[in-house]
Amino acid sequence: MPITVQHNPFATRFTRPGALPFLFNNGNRLESIVDAFHDCGFVCQIVGQHGSGKTTLTYALEPILRDNFHPIRRFTVRGPRQFESSETLTPTRSPTRIPLLVIDGFEKLPWLHRRLLVKHVRDQRTGLLITTHQPIGGIPVLLQMLPTLETLQRLTCELAPDLVIQKNLLAAIFDNNHGNIRESLMTLYNWFETQKTIT
Description:
By secondary structure, the protein is an alpha/beta fold.
């Protein structure tokens, strides 16, 4: 039966990093991840395949990290010489806070740049939180991302609570996208477009 609705719940504006909540499957909490980050000396990596939720996790952690870090500067590495950056400023400055760099796609930087950057942040007592597809030697792993079908199911319920999608359809989408949650949501966007009728 066609779906009668005015907007697609899987549109990019609803599924981009920062728009979705981060969902744990193993009982962890954001506060426990922040505690582990502190225990590692404020230099850590989040490891996982493309579309596994690494960037979403960094956005979810950011409001809690603001208690101890200022400013927070976010960089996205598109290639060896391609960067996008933004800076998140807290309302007030505090001498007890240290700067934090959040670098998405750290493995795309040249090897020497990665090494010099890690040395620099440690020398300057700057926090560093990176995302990478494969572990980078010498940097503690904060979390290894393991996307699951359950995560996709929970996100689907979060985005479209009134929409009934058969579990076998979600399983097929998840498998066809090799466990890539982001690509699975894009597939759901296309599926939804074929099902709906606009009112």
